Amino acid sequence: MNPGELICYILAGVVVISALVVVLTANLVRSVFLFFVTLFALAGLYVFSLADFVAVTQVIVYVGGVLVLMLFAFMLSNKELLNSLRQPAAAKLSMLTNIPAGIVAAGVFTVLAISTKGLQLAAPSGMSLFPAGMLNAGDNTIHLLGVRLMTNYLLPFELASVFLLMALIGAAHLARKGKEST
Amino acid sequence: MIPLEHYLLISAALFCIGLYAVFTRRNAIQVLIGIEFMINAAVINFVAFSKYDKAKLGGQVFALFAIVLAAAGVAVALAIILNVYKYYKTIDPGKIDELRD
Amino acid sequence: MLACGAAVIPLLGAIATYTFSKRNRGSGIAIAGSVLTFVLSALVFYTTWDHTAIHRQISWFTIGDLTFTAGVLLNNLSVLMLFLISGISLLVHIYSAAYMKLDPRLPVYWTCLGLFCFSMMALVVADSLLLIYLFWELVGFSSYLLIGFWNTRQAAVLANKKAFIINRIGDIGFLAGIMVLFSQYHTLDLVTLFSDHGLVASSPRIGGVWVGATGQLSQAWLTIAGAVFFFGAMAKSAQFPLHTWLPDAMEGPTPVSSLIHAATMVAAGVFLLVRVFPLFDQTVLLLIASIGTFTAFMAATIALAQHDIKKILAWSTISQLGYMIAAIGMGSPESAMFHLATHAFFKCLLFLSAGAVIHELQHHYAKSGDTTDPQDIRNMGGLRKKMPVTFIVMTIAALALAGFPGTSGFLSKDAVLVSAFGWGAAEQNVFSVIPYLLFVTSLLTAFYVARLIFKVFFGPAGQEELHEAPAPMRWPMIVLALCCLFPLFSVNPVSFESAWIMAGFYLNAVEAGAYHTYVPVLVSLGGTAAVFFAWFCYGRNRSGNIFTDKGMLYRFALNGWYFDKLYLAVFVKPVVLLSRILFGFDKKVVDGLVNAVGSLGLSLSAVSRWTDRYLVDAAVNGLGSISKTIGNFTRNFQNGRVQYYLLATVAGVLLFFMFTYFL
Amino acid sequence: MNLLSVLVFSPLVAGLIVLVLPASLQSRYKYVALAATILQVLLSVLVWVRFNPSLGGVNNEHTLQFAEKLSWIQLNVGGDSRLQIDYFLAIDGLSMPFLLLTSLVMFVAVLSSWEITTNLKGYFALFMLLDTAVMGVFTAMDFFLFYLFYELMLLPIYFLIGMWGGVKREYAAIKFFLYTLFGSVFMLLIMVGLYFSVQDPLTGDHTFNMVHMMNPANYVDGSLFAKFSGQLLLGIPARSLAFIVLFVAFAIKVPIVPLHTWLPDAHVEAPTPVSIVLAGILLKVGGYGVIRICYSIFPEAALGYAWWIGLIGVVSIIYGALNALAQRDLKRLVAYSSVSHMGFVLLGIASVTAEGISGAMMQMISHGFLSVMLFFLVGVIYTRVHDREIANFRGLSQLMPQYTFFIMVAFFASLGLPGFSAFIAEAFSLTGAFKSAGVNGLIPRWMALGGSVGILLSAAYLLWTLQRMFFGQLRLSGGEPWRLLLTDVTIREKIALVPLAAMALLLGILPGVVFTQINTSVLDLVKLVNP
Amino acid sequence: MDQQFPDITGTFSAVTGGIRYLMPEIALVAAFLLGVIIDLFFSRRFRHAVLICAAAGLGAAAWLTLAAGDDLPADPLFYGMIFSSVFSNVFKLVFYGVALLFLVLCFFNRQLQQHAKGTGDLYNILLVVVLGMSFMSMSINLLMVYLSVEMVSVGSYLMVGYISGNSRQAEASIKYALFGGACSAIMLYGISLIYAFTGTLDLGEIMVRGLENVPSLSSATAITLVLAGIGFKLSFVPVHFWSPDVYEGAPTPVTAFLSTGPKIAGFALLLIFLMTFFVAAEGHRFFDFKNTISVIAIMTMVVGNFSAVWQDNIKRMLAYSSIGHTGFILMGFVSLDHGGFRAMFFYVIVYALMNMAAFMLADYVEQRANAVTATGYAGLGKRFPLAFTIFVVVLISLTGIPPTGGFIGKLLIFSSVWGQYRATHALLPLAMLITGAVTTVISLFYYLKIPLNAWLRSGDTAVTITTKNGLLVYTAFAIMLILLAVGIFPQLITAYLPG
Question: What is its main location (chain C) (predicted)?
């Protein structure tokens, strides 16, 4: 096991553990903070998968955008935050009611694990068809991505812009106060 | 480089953690976080397998789109959650149950 | 042609009276019509009697390959009946004109009477069983109308309902007989079926199989066919056990009783049996003879105890019909027909006389505001001085009924009894009692009719201002009285064999032998003795009564052997009860079942809703709901929680997936 | 334009006219409807006159009369099949009498619609729609078209009962609708299955043409409903299952015990004109469907189940009659008597003899006239005092002599008094049933005898009713007000009643009027079913 | 770079060459952009400017689609992103039609028109949603699939929560957003697995072969997850839970739109997805689509119809009924090669029409008499005779009784399933047939509630009647006429259907 792999596993461990804490903790502040950690660890994993641009995007978009938004939302509904901080009895009971959810989630995990275990995926079947082969550590993925986005993925790219505009307009509409409303 | 199966396993774990969050968290924003976990689980797969797809780089592109779309989705969802908060003074999805059989 | 005319005129008369009844109340038209009918019938009778039978038919309708015909068959049997019916009906029409004069619904009466005459005459001339059945029912229908003519009287409407329904029971038998014959021979034409070389006569019975022209049936069906025809006749001719309607039918106007329930309609059963006579095999004949004899005897005993003048006559009618039926059963249809003809006259006359008495008494009571029953013989007496003509004619009729020499009844009753003894001699078993029973019955007959006469006309007079019935009522009675004497039927007052009716019907000669001489003598002597006995009981002093009112036998007889009660308990009530039960069943069970199927939709959706609400949620909260702390939570288990939706969804997909791939 | 098309669609036109007429002319709507029905009566008489009774029809397209066949829907549904649906109207002896029956009954129903006072526009529009649908059912020779009209009958009836009905009208209307739809949805399935099994011999396309469906040669080899493929469907031979499903669908309409329970409710709650149509026509649609579709298309299944059908017939006869005996409501009594009388139809049909089927046809027609008369008469009383309890009336004959006359005619006619049509009909249904054992051995003789008990029972309940309601001393539970309200029949009512009574009488005395027209077809049908 | 793109001009021309097949979509985008600008600057002066703009855009798109006619590309466009075919054109026309009807509904909806924040954004969002639906019907690449589904989904959340005038609308929108977010995440994960197993995002033979190479369990897992995502759009069982709540809570025009447009887009997507597997590799062994969809169809019909029976709220009832119809249409997917194509297309078109009409009338009644429940409809028939007459015909069509388009649709579906049964003699098609028949009867229970209450019962007379918007009824009337015409002459539609 080389250091790279070790770091990979550590990152993976961080991802899973922090995610678990995010999900299980009753403390909302801790949960949001650990979400932050998970996202960073994920970005690290992406880097190790030779997807540096994706990792950067992850950090910028998630940490810079999503997380900030969420914090705003928390603050805007801070009463709720406080409420959920002190509800130990409810939390205990919710543990009980969460058991079926846990079973289902575990079931899904089992199915996923079984269906992905032992696959000979060193080179997925379809991929050998591509002459360009595997990505190497030295490749300029940003360059490659740029070219792809302007050729193969031009249509989705443009469409995404329309989509974002709509999301912007819509979210703004929902959030803003009415012109004539009092 | 860790084996691809391990990536799949990690992503599966993250997916299920997200799923669990979606099922159980009593705060709409945490449910959203769960959804983000699920999306990120998919992103792990895309990114990991994108290594073999140098020609099209479909995985990475998809990952980018997924992240961006997720962000937009979160923005909209948060706007909606704030609206809900306005009426219900709570964002516990379990308590928002006026509409039911 | 003439026969058709004779048959149709009453119908036209009926329609005419109904249509033009406003002005002259219809009596004129009705009587004119019936005169015309009588003249035509007489002509037909004159031209056809003892000539070759006339058979005219037209195609009526076609079903499948078979064409049904409608037509007339005029042979001795039908023209005799035709003549008889038209004659009596003419007299009854005239009588009715006076009897019913004051009734507000007289036109309706004429219409119904006309309808009856039409159906009765059509019945006798019809040439196919289908037509006979048709008119058979119409006769029943018009009888229904006439019995219930005074339809505001509860008893009358109950009686006509009873009459019709019991007749219907018989009709089913008739219909069943038609079905058997039709499926066997594919025709219902009387000539084709029953003539000497007709299908019935020529179809062999081989080894238990009854081979017909177009099919074959087990021989049991032959017996059944005969039995069901007899069953039909039983109802119409009021034979045990379908006799109970006739006494009740006396609720109708008396002329109706006399025409329909004494002279004509009830004879239709006898007529039918004579028509289909070749069909009967030994078993059926024996059955017919037994039933007829039993009915004759039973009705006579019942007649002994009745108080209502018309009821006595009604039971007597049943008894006499029993004679005729028995005669047929004993293979002597000619004597049955003979007795039918004579009986028609004297019984009609008896009724008309009774009607005259009732009519006068009713007037009397109506005037004095008395509510005494004008029909109860216990309230009568000494009328011979007030109504001498009635007395005389009724006595003649009574003598005829009792079978005294010199009357027509003597001839015909002898004919029946002689043939009975002749037949009985051949029988070795218990059936040989039949002739003796008939003989006893004739004695009983003499007794009860004497009782009637003595009670009504003798003894002290009770009522003061009674007088003879009006002329239109008197004259028909006188004419009928003349017809009750022997000359009309036979030049020889003692030999029934010289009667022209018998001669006209010699279907098969009876070996009478010695019975021919001593039976008439015995009947006459016995009858005389019975009359004297009656005189002893009722005529001389009215206190003497061999039947105590308390006696069990007496009550048994008075109530007609309790058949009405029996039927009510055994048939009517259970059927009504069954219908109630079935209706309850229909409402609760059938409808409920179907509703259940219908609401299966609802219940299924309840299941799915239940599943949605409890199963899914319970799966979600499954373990939690086991714990008792969950009580507070139950209201949160309701739907409407998006996370549960998601959980259910994923669980559903997961389950589905696992079922598909792991099981 | 073809006579049949005019016959079918003229009421629809009248309905549209009613719809577009302004509400200010509300009181005139009924005259529009009346005119349409009179026109229909005239047209159907014309059809009757021009009908050639020597042509059989049934399964021979060339001997169908007044045929109009237009290509209607040609759908390429992909795969190997093309949907070929024709606008195919024609009649033969089996349908022709129903045209006259329908038009006459509709005429009477419109006359009895005078009692309707609310929402006239909707009422007459729906009524005319119903008229069109019924006419269509009797003339359609394409299964698809038949089904179309068949379903089209549902909705108007639903609303007519539901909107203008009695107290429990909702329940009755829904019950009726669900019952019938339940049958017809499965009919649809069988219809589609049949369509896949049958090919037009000329074009080779799959077809809904009923005449083609009757010919075993037109079935695709090995297809589900091919006669000799012997395929199983849910463990039952496919053709038998199809027969059962179709039979149940139609039998619900007939109705048979135990699927009859919609009928008393529907009748009791329906307004008089709708009762009239229900009893007079819709029940016949069931019988007609059994003959036209079940028996003609699945003859061997029909023969196989003849025993059961006969049994159902007998049970219906007796069960319906016994139930009628228990009724206290006059209309319900009449409704149950319908169940009983329609039992004869099944018994006659089950026998597959010329007599039986002719008797069944006659019974349908006769019952058409008589039940209409009965319901009309019940309606007369009901409109006067809004009560139908038998026990609340007594001695009506004194108050309403003419009414009593009509009701006696109706009662006696329907209890099978000779001289009226019901007698011929019942006698021949039973005779056919009896004969069947000797001819084709389909149903045992006791069934015919059992059925004849129904005749007795019908006499019992009808006479009992007569005695209770009309005879005896006058006594009304409503007292003096009722005495004033219960006036005798009016001219309009007589106009409605007289033709019905006349028809019943005419057909009773001259049954040949009907038998001649249907005879060839009946023979052909018998030959088709039991070659 | 050059070694990867030897012919950069060719690449660009390949991209630009596809543009001419995207004219309708471009029209939509143009209208969207124009609408945004109009909304910003002119909406105060011209209240309905954006509406007109959106309508013009939709009209133009529809016209362009029609005008393109047979001018269809032979190959996929944009490097295998989309494929424009007759199928997609039909679907697109349905979408545009539905969207136009939606605009009509919006125009007459008081609640929307009085919305404080204006309606302009709604129309703009609508255009993007329609754009997304367009692409859903054309996508043959999983990225495009995901993107277009997200466009439709997010747009739909916005539309549902657009007014947020009361708690119910807010609740509906959050439920929709959370459920939808989770479902799209699940679908995304499924897509990622497919990508992991096959290395390609193109829906085509390579993907199918790639899925064959991994154990069937693995491919089945991936496909199941994707199907669950598609199922969210279709709201079939068991992914249907959201729809009753959302349909009930959303503004009626939005409900009308959601129950038709996106749902039909979901069908288009399912069709593409299935065709990939049916066409590319007959007899692949890793997933039994037919049986799965059969079972889903049966369950969906049962759940939808049976649950609807209990509903009193009209919109909720129609929501369940639309679940039932989904199940019915799914039957057509099972028997695609036995006429299911046409049947499905026909049914979808008729379904769109009748559902829109039903919601239009529900909206009309809601606005004029303030009645939203079946019991609240009591006695209204006599007050709005025309509206309820139309309603009855529409409901008859929804039930599938002749002579309406709904009946023909049902007939065609039944026919195709019979065809399927004939070919396979399997139990499931038969079970589907019987379920279809039974649930048709069941559906009558609830559809009948409306005429039952409106016509057969009498309600309180004190119903406040406000605003006259007859045009809505006349639009519904026109739809009714179309339904009847189609019921009697189905060629009117079938003549133009592919398959």
Answer: membrane
C406 and C322 Cβ atoms separated by less than 8 Å:
no
Tokens 């829906």 label which residue? E203
| DSSP SS3 for C471 | helix
C-alpha gyration radius of chain B: 17
Q: What angle separates helix E205-213 from helix E216-234, to the nearest 10 degrees? A: 130
The DSSP H or E segment spanning D251 is helix D238-253
Chain D and chain E touch, per 3+ beta carbon pairs within 8 A? yes
**Contact state of A144 with B54 under an 8 Å Cβ cutoff:** yes
- Lowest-pLDDT range of C382-391, C582-591, D167-176, E83-92: C582-591
D98 near C CB under 8 A: no
Is B23 within 8 Å of C647 when comparing Cβ atoms?
Answer: yes
- Return the residue of A nearest to E79 by Cα: A152
In C, which residues are within 8 Å of A95 by CB distance? none
Decide if A65 is inside a domain. yes
Q: Is the pLDDT of residue B65 over 90?
A: yes
Last residue of some domain: C548, C578, C613?
C548
Does the pLDDT of residue E101 top 90, yes or no?
A: yes
A106 within some domain: no
Distances in Å between the Cα of C221 and the Cα atoms of C179, C209, C233 are 11, 9, 18
| Per-residue pLDDT reduced to its tens digit, D483-508 | 888 888 888 888 888 888 888 888 88
Pair C411, C472 in one domain:
yes
Nearest to D463 among C152, C165, C590 (CB): C165
> Of C548, C583, C605, which residue is a domain's last?
C548
> CB-side exposure of C73: number of CA atoms within 13 Å?
20
Going from the C-alpha of B19 to that of each of A24, B23, C5, C141, the distances in angstroms are 12, 6, 102, 86
Q: What is the DSSP letter of C252?
A: S
Asked whether residue C360 is domain-assigned, the answer is yes
Residues of D in Cβ contact (< 8 Å) with E456:
162-163, 169-170, 173
Is E352 within 8 Å of E405 (Cβ atoms)? no
Together in a domain, C578 and C534: no
Mean pLDDT for chain E overall: 87
Tell me: pLDDT of E360 over 50: yes
Note whether E197 contacts A154, CB cutoff 8 Å. no
Give exposure, C392-404, as e/b (b: 16+ Cβ within 10 Å): bbbbbbbbbbbbb
Please tell me if residue A170 touches chain E, with a CB cutoff of 8 Å. Answer: yes
pLDDT given at position C596? 58
Name the band, by pLDDT with cuts 50, 70 and 90, for residue E98: very high
The owner of tokens 């499924």 is E190
Confidence class for position C631, pLDDT limits 50, 70, 90: very low
Supply the pTM of this predicted model.
0.85
Q: Does the distance separating the beta carbons of A22 and B21 come in below 8 Å?
A: yes
Q: Partners for E (CB, 8 Å, 3+ pairs)?
A: A, B, C, D
**Which candidate, A31, A37, A32, places its Cα nearest to that of A10?**
A37
Q: Chain D contacts of C60, Cβ < 8 Å? A: 511-512
**Is the minimum CB–CB distance between A31 and chain B shorter than 8 Å?**
yes
Residue D302 has pLDDT above 90, yes or no: no
Mean pLDDT of D113-140: 89
* Nearest chain D CA: its distance from E172 CA (Å): 34
Domain range for residue A65?
Answer: 3-88+131-175
Grade residue B17 by pLDDT with cuts at 50, 70 and 90.
Answer: very high
CB contact under 8 A, D178 and E441: yes
Distance between start and end Cα atoms, chain B = 52
Under an 8 A CB cutoff, do D325 and C576 touch? yes
Which CATH number characterizes residue B68's domain? 1.10.287.3510
**DSSP characters over C155-214:** HHHHHHHHHHHHHHHHHHHHHHHHHHHHHHHS--BHHHHHSTTSHHHH--EETTEEE-SS
